[in-house]
Amino acid sequence: MVSAARRVSRPGAGLSVGGPSVAVVARTRAIYRCADCGHEVAKWVGRCPECQAWGTIAEAAAARPALAKVAAGAPSAPAMPIARVDVESARARPSGVGELDRVLGGGLVPGAVILLAGEPGVGKSTLLLEVTHRWAAGSGSPALYVTGEESAGQVRLRAERTGALHDQLYLAAESDLGALLAHVDAVKPGLLIVDSVQTMATATAEGSAGGVTQVRAVATALVALAKERGLPVVLVGHVTKDGSVAGPRVLEHLVDVVLQFEGDRHSTLRLLRGVKNRFGPSDEVGCFELVEEGILGVPDPSGLFLNKREVEVAGTAVTVVVEGKRPLLAEVQSLVASSSMPTPRRAVSGLDSARVAMVLAVLERRGKVKLGNADVYAATVGGMKVNEPAADLALALAVASAARDVAVPPDMVAIGEVGLAGEVRRVAGTGRRLTEAMRLGFTRALVPPDSGPMPSGMRVSVVEDVKAALRILRKEGKPLRDQNDD
């Protein structure tokens, strides 16, 4: 008979050695986390299976188990009926830059945290320097611009070039979160700019600046600072090669507003898009022009996307697209040339290449426009990017005009989506689009059926399919001589 002293319990149970049972403590299991994307794995690997980065997996402390019970604490403020909640402290204040206020829904809300993302060199720092200058000059409270990417002298030279010098605009070059908070305590600003969140670091978090852990810790601290003091904070964010915000996805969830600053290096046009906005519309667009003296808001940008010419040219058509809630006129150009290659070339700039290929196929099959042995080039004017299906009809007219050497009437706009069967489908807001076209001097329009009420004074032709649009082009277009005949 085995004595009780030698009796050993199974793993996981109490251990009895001739006395009271002793609980066996389970061994804590280590986890490994990627420093770039935050993905966790059970064991160390050389390459992250989520973001495919090499050498970013490191051992991290295991998360503590959640408590089974949470004790009730004292609330920060008593709950009250929603009708009695004070809203004056949450009203937006104009920043002084009209196009930015349009995208934000009226201006900067106290305590709001805004993330401004964009590619390098697009003009983020120039825009925010202008915002701080306008705020310092017109709000009555100082503005603090903290840069972690440049020296204070470099920012000072840019401010001198753009005319953004003001006594109430404070500048600090810091990359430590603790030093940044000390500057905030000393200056007591009404607006804080942090350029950029990926360059800031704190000693309370592991990893280097720009890593997942550091970005999360810095963003959390700045959000808490903004909410505690009612201070609007603007964070500059880097983007990856595919255009998304660099760092953890939680960064976009922590902030109140996410803005995307877009633009082509070869064009002066810049578009500010609202991606997320807790205080206003999330589909609004602001237009800016980057010039030598700084950045200027463009309240009426349609003229930037139209090419003014004295002589009619084949291969151009004008449409009206909607960016956010703003209708903009866009000119679509096309060139069709004979090709000696077995596979003709298709080159696209500013348009969706998949939709261009679809429209070309519809033109050849439904409109009887021969394009099989021709190179086709399609582009927009002014560096504008058009992805809206409403530009399909204008693209079809531009290609047919270039192929048949017939100029589209200069006072005509074309609006409509083209389907695979050749039909022209209606799009939203046709009346509002035509009103904008009338304001700029256009008097004729091609629109889909059932487009709703049209503005008076505009000659509207309803086209049911591509064939009907080509018949109008053949009837009202101006035939041109071939350039080779000169």
Our estimate of the beta-strand percent is: 15-25%
CATH class identity of the largest domain: Alpha Beta
What characteristic shape results from the CA principal axes?
A: globular
What is the strand arrangement across the widest sheet? 6-5-7-8-4-9-10-11-12
Strand count, sense and barrel status of the largest sheet are: 9 strands, mixed
Averaged pLDDT:
87
> Quick one: CATH superfamily of the largest domain?
P-loop containing nucleotide triphosphate hydrolases
CATH fold description of the largest domain: Rossmann fold
Helix residue percentage = 10-25%
Which value, in Å, is the CA radius of gyration? 30 Å
Distance between the termini: 118 Å
CATH architecture assignment of the largest domain: 3-Layer(aba) Sandwich
Overall tally of domains:
3
| SS-based class | alpha/beta
Number of strands: 23
Uncertain parts: 1-26
**Number of helical segments?**
10
Function: Plays a role in repairing double-strand DNA breaks, probably involving stabilizing or processing branched DNA or blocked replication forks.
Protein name: DNA repair protein RadA
Motif (RadA KNRFG motif): 276-280
Binding site for ATP: 118-125
